[in-house]
């Protein structure tokens, strides 16, 4: 077994096709498909330590439709035999084409288009392997308990090989948290694949072979990046930032990553190795300045301070701060910072890629009050007030946050609510009155929470609508289940009162009624836990009689694109004009939402906040999935502008809906 995978084996199916037997003009022979697969096999053995008997290699005449299905079955058998304690990697290099039957794309086996004789003497044309079939294979692997499936696909329209709904996943159930922690918004548990797709091209784009070095451009670059540095230093998203596939004149090939574990390490990551709080940061060679990919749209202001890191791994011991950055200018989606002095081991040169984490934002502060001012000043002395941007006030009416000390415990209450909300009750959880670090953590989280909940965009929100509806389960002919929405939109008035019933399930639909493509980012603000969860990076606690397990809730995120200088603004999966996006319903890969209240509670307030932008943005940097009330461990210690690109409208907008949850 491979030491890389911490004792769990990795099983791989690698497919490379040069020769297509039908000789159809739509499937011309390729030069590099077999070479790509052979090079990937070599990487698996030498870098990942995968045993040779754990790799099933299909090439040309063995990579038929039947052969590929037998390969998927072999993978499933290996996972079942090990009770799910295994990782799976699937690699494909060959043709991909549009599939009209499922509005996706499909992989082309080597015998696609061939006429074969079936029972009864009839002839049949061999078909490709559709995206819906691939999704079903992923779900079977997930149902068998696979730790993670990684798909690397180099073919045309590669990012359409899975539905965007498949980006939903549950975290490995070994992680547990104290029972008192609870989030109101969750999803109905379903067998949804834990997977990452590294795709060579966009949803309607072509992939190209490398005419100079042989093989495909994407595979060559993908392996080159992985071999530059140990793969465990990357996360799925940071690996994509480093992919730069040269474009053929008159065309663009933009790699994509669609993942339920965007912040997990490639191939064997559980999803929690990285952190969304890090922003992509690059050295702009032409201007000799450092640009952080987060700007005024993400709430950044001039004077903000970032720490700079080599990667976006969450472990501060593995990924220490190399220095600090001060923001000197802010654009809509990026910030320019002063070049810091870094250790000689980490020089900054043109094109260098780093990651930055916001330490303190300029202008973000909070007013706090306690009836025991002497105690408050002892736990938040002047130095801490400056560091946290806290102002102590004498009048409770002037405060943003009230700290009440009762029987040695501190209870918190937010004071300045949104106009449309009901009064927010005391936060359920408390901290020890002598635990200064925990108190500071709650105060700091309150500043972050309030700032992103209340800030407004410079543009009015008109042409993108958000609907919340109850959904009901419906069984399809093939046995799959789908959730259909009822007619009534619960957010007609911008807020909704929901009588909590665990039998009721809900879904959201986003409508783009404008004439401009938008990228949507949907968050759930939980004031009782001071968490900001995204429908892709959201924690859900599932309670049973004796256990409390933490899962990662599914979510929609626009796929991450790679490109020149490691990032591109041309990721081609926005919500197009006149289209809608269903979240939590309408496809077999989706899971509906559920709303719950903790035992003994009768009411709770939550906020759905929808951010939309005209280009991919770093709104995930505002996520704060972990509540400050949870126990903490001791501290451990741009894109170049394309001169030929049209100048597009650049803006962002935000809309908030209040959810008042009450017991039925």
From TrEMBL:
Example GO molecular function: cysteine-type endopeptidase activity
InterPro entries on file: Pept_C14_caspase
Superkingdom, natural source: Eukaryota
Record GO biological process: proteolysis
Pfam families for this protein: Peptidase_C14 (PF00656)
All residue ranges annotated as the Peptidase C14 caspase domain in the record: 11-260
Name recorded for this polypeptide: Peptidase C14 caspase domain-containing protein
Species the sequence originates in: Agrocybe pediades
């Amino acid at each position: 077994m491979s030491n890389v995978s911490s004792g769990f084996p990795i099983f791989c199916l690698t497919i490379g096709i040069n020769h297509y037997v039908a000789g159809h003009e739509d499937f011309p022979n390729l030069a590099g498909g077999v070479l790509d697969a052979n090079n990937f096999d070599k990487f698996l053995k030498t870098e990942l330590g995968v045993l040779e008997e754990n790799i099933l290699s299909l090439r040309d005449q063995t990579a038929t439709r039947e052969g590929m299905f037998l390969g998927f079955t072999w993978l499933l058998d290996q996972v079942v035999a090990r009770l799910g304690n295994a990782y799976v990697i699937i690699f494909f290099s060959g043709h991909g084409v549009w599939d009209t039957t499922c509005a996706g794309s499909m992989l082309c086996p080597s015998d696609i288009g061939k006429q074969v004789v079936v029972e009864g003497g009839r002839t049949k044309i061999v078909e490709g392997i559709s995206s819906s079939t691939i999704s079903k294979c992923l779900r079977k692997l997930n149902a068998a308990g696979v730790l993670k499936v990684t798909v690397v696909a180099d073919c045309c329209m590669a990012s359409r090989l899975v539905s965007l709904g498949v980006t939903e996943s549950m975290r490995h159930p070994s992680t547990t948290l104290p029972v008192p922690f609870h989030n109101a918004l969750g999803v109905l548990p379903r067998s949804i694949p834990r997977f990452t797709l590294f795709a060579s091209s966009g949803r309607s784009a072509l992939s190209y072979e490398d005419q100079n070095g042989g093989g495909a451009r994407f595979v060559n670059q993908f392996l080159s990046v992985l071999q530059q540095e140990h793969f465990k230093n990357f996360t799925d998203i940071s690996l994509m930032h480093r992919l730069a596939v040269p474009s053929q004149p008159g065309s663009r090939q933009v790699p994509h990553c669609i993942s339920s574990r965007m912040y997990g390490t490639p191939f064997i990551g559980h999803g929690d190795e990285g952190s969304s709080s890090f922003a992509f940061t690059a050295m702009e060679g032409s201007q000799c300045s450092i640009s952080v990919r987060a700007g005024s749209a993400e709430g950044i202001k001039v004077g903000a301070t970032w720490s700079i890191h080599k990667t976006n791994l969450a472990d501060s011991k593995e990924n220490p701060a190399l220095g600090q950055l001060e923001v000197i200018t802010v654009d809509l989606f990026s910030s320019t910072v002063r070049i810091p002095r870094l250790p000689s081991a980490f020089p900054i040169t043109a094109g260098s890629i780093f990651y930055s984490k916001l330490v303190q934002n300029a202008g973000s502060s909070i007013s706090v009050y306690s009836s025991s001012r002497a105690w408050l000043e002892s736990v938040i002395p002047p130095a801490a007030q400056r560091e946290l941007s806290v102002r102590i006030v004498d009048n409770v009416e002037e405060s943003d946050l009230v700290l009440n000390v009762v029987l040695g415990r501190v209870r918190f209450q937010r004071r300045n609510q949104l106009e449309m909300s009901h009064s927010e009750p005391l936060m359920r959880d408390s901290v020890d009155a002598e635990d200064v670090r925990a108190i500071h953590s709650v105060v700091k989280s309150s500043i972050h929470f309030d700032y992103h909940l209340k800030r407004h965009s410079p543009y009015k929100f008109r042409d993108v609508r958000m609907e919340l509806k109850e959904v009901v389960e419906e069984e399809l002919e093939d046995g799959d289940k789908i959730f259909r929405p009822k007619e009534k939109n619960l957010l007609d008035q911008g807020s909704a009162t929901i009588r909590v019933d665990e039998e009721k399930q809900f879904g959201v639909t986003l409508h783009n009624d404008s004439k401009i493509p938008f990228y949507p980012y949907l968050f759930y603000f939980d004031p009782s836990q001071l968490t900001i969860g995204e429908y892709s990076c959201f924690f859900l606690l599932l309670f049973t009689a004796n256990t409390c397990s933490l899962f990662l809730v599914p979510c929609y995120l626009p796929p991450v694109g790679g490109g020149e200088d490691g990032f591109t603004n041309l990721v081609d999966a926005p919500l197009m004009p006149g289209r809608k996006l269903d979240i939590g319903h309408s496809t077999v890969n989706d899971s509906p939402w559920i709303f719950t209240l903790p035992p003994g509670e009768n009411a709770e307030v939550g906020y759905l906040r929808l951010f939309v932008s005209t280009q991919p943005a770093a709104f995930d940097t505002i996520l704060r999935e972990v509540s400050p009330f949870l126990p903490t461990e001791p501290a451990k210690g741009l894109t170049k502008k394309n001169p030929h690109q049209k100048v597009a409208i650049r803006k962002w907008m935000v809309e908030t809906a209040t959810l008042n949850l009450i017991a039925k």
